[in-house]
Amino acid sequence: MKALKVSELNTQIKAILEQTFLDVCVQGEISSVKVHTSGHIYLSIKDEDSNIKCVMFKGNARGLKITLEVGQSIVIMGSVSVYTQKGEYQILCKSITLAGVGEFALAFENLKNKLQTKGYFESFHKKPMPKFPKRIALLTSATGAAKEDMLKVAQKRWNLVHITLFDTLVQGENAKECIVANLALADSFFGTKEGFDVIVLGRGGGSMEDMWAFNEECVAEAIYRAKTPIISAVGHEVDVFISDFVADLRAPTPSAAMEMLLPDKFEFLRIIDEMMSAYSSVFERYLGQKQRLIGQLKEYFKLYNFQSQYINKREQIQALGQIFVENFRNILEKKQGEIERVKMLIDVAFERKLTHAQMECERLFEALKASNPRSLCKNGYAQISKEQKVCVLQDIAVNEVFELSDLDLHIFAKRVK
Predict the structure, then answer these.
(1) 8 A C-beta contact, residue 297 and residue 307
(2) Phi/psi of residue 34, nearest 5 degrees
(3) Residues forming beta bridges with residue 34, ordered by sequence position
(4) Mapping DSSP to helix (H, G, I), strand (E, B) and coil, where does residue 26 land?
(5) Are 254 and 150 in contact (CB under 8 A)?
(6) Per-residue DSSP letters for 285-338?
(7) Over the stretch 276-306, which tens digit does the pLDDT of each residue have?
(8) How far is residue 268's CA from residue 26's CA, in Å, rounded to a whole number?
(9) For 86-97, what is each residue's pLDDT tens digit?
(10) Burial class of residue 137 (count of CB atoms within 10 Å of its CB; 0-12, 13-18, 19+)
(11) How many beta carbons lie within 10 A of that of residue 78, not counting itself?
């Protein structure tokens, strides 16, 4: 038989063990435990007769919900591996839970007791909900059914509200960091005109593992430190989370959160209708009282005969008005007749004056033509003048000397007869 090297033997044993024990579940008592700075956890478990080493690497250790201590009875889920350098075998732990107690239940109770001791659940820390919220920050998954349910209820109940969605991881390894970051972001607007009246942290139902982000201490811290009122609306009505205890208000479901937060517009419309009916009734009674008072005042007026005096004076005024109208009409007709006569006289005088003026114009025009030397001279005539004044032959006496002139000549003449 050929001799094997130590490493070869350990390698063969490693192959056999790891293929045979791929998935094991082991219960035992912790005999030693050490958390390395790298994040790995090294421990040993034992029973009455044996001891075995175990290791939980950083990736799985991040999801551990309990603090491991010597003496605890635990249940390990994992696989068997061989460390060939030392020829030792160990269990590679995938999960560790306390024997007889659920891991999540224990972690929940531990954190609940811790936060309760710190006073995070006290009522005097709770901020009141706004009666008529105008701006709501909704922290949930943009693709989840819870978002649609909440928006549908909000639209039905009170569509005067503005809802801003902060797309938030609500399950998985990075869910708690995303929830904390979005809570801080939404709360950062507090005190500004863009500030939110309330923050709704919500998601639908699921397994405890999927919902565990709402039981994380960092999420509880973020809710407690926020200045904006917060509603925790996670899971179904029977589900209870750490966020429910720390938040200012717990809603049994996401839809219920909107029903608790937003007023019912139909209820307010009903109230308004009732108020209008009551107002109408009161107004009618008030109007009836005033009408009765007016009736009494009318009776008082009749007693003092004010109405009769008024009717008498009104009839006198109407009669005087009729007389005034008739007199004014007569005066107007008389004056119109006088105006027509004067107009006729004016027209006759105007025609006479116009005819006389036209005749005078014609005479003057003829005289002007006769006295215009240039027009006369052009037609072979001479201008007649006496003592340097233009005249006509009829103005010259017998044996009187006068002047004749045209454009070229100037002579003296004498009338003989």
Answers:
(1) no
(2) -150, 130
(3) 42
(4) strand
(5) yes
(6) HHHHHHHHHHHHHHHHHHHTTHHHHHHHHHHHHHHHHHHHHHHHHHHHHHHHHH
(7) 999 999 999 999 999 999 988 887 777 666 6
(8) 63
(9) 888 999 999 888
(10) buried
(11) 22
Mean pLDDT of 380-393: 76
Give yes or no for a contact between 201 and 139, defined as CB atoms under 8 angstroms apart. Answer: yes
Q: Per-residue pLDDT averaged across 261-271, rounded? A: 90
Separation of alpha carbons 190 and 229, rounded Å: 10
Task: Say if CB 21 and CB 13 are below 8 A apart.
Answer: no
Give residue 346's identity as a one-letter amino acid code.
I
**Residue whose structure tokens are 């008389």:** 334
Question: Six-digit token pair at 96?
Answer: 């560790």
Hey, CA dihedral for 104, 110, 113, 114, is it positive or negative?
negative
Could you give the dihedral angle defined by the CA atoms of residues 306, 311, 313 and 315, in that order, rounded to the nearest 10 degrees?
180
Looking up tokens 């720390």 gives 246
pLDDT at 100: 61
| Neighbouring-strand partners of residue 386 | 389
Asked whether the beta carbons of 81 and 18 are under 8 A apart, the reply is yes
Output Rg (C-alpha) for the chain, integer angstroms: 61
Residue 31: closest CA among 47, 7, 8: 47
Cβ atoms of 231 and 261 within 8 Å: the answer is yes
User: Given this model, what pLDDT does residue 374 score?
Assistant: 53
Decide: 23 and 79 in contact? Cβ < 8 Å.
yes
Among all chains, which residue has been given the structure tokens 């919220």? 133
Backbone φ/ψ region at 388: left (φ over 0), alpha (ψ -120 to 50), beta: left
Cα–Cα distance for residue pair 141/147, rounded to 1 Å: 7
Phi-psi label, residue 73: left if phi above 0, alpha if psi -120 to 50, beta otherwise: beta
